[in-house]
Amino acid sequence: MSLQYIRNTYGVPAKRGGRIEYTGNGSKIQGTITGSRGARILVRLDGDKGSVEFHPTRKIQYLDADVASSGAAGASMKETQRADFEAFAVDHYRQFGHRPNLTRSEKQPHNYVDANVNALWWGWQAGQDALLARIERGGNG
Predict the structure, then answer these.
(1) CB neighbours (10 Å) of residue 2?
(2) Contact, 69 vs 62, CB < 8 A?
């Protein structure tokens, strides 16, 4: 998985070279994002030589001046992506004479209650990630 996947999935402005502050263990520690491993960001904490894994949203604050430190800019991008998907889902279901259940899960708000809609969401998102990766490589889609 990539930093693009993390940005899309968690709605955070994670990017290589970006600065974060970790507020776990009762202290504040700053570091620099060096990459990703799975769905985790890799961060080299100030004063350390190696990188350690962090969950992208748990006790992490993004410090870059060009994005809101609370992650609000990332959240609005994520909500825009959700709105695009939900419009797509309505059109997709309409061709079969159905309406999708777009209720989000209480326990996991990044998922939908309806298993079919949820599968469509994750597949749609993977397609969006693949398209972005091709564009970044200079491909034409």
Answers:
(1) 14
(2) yes
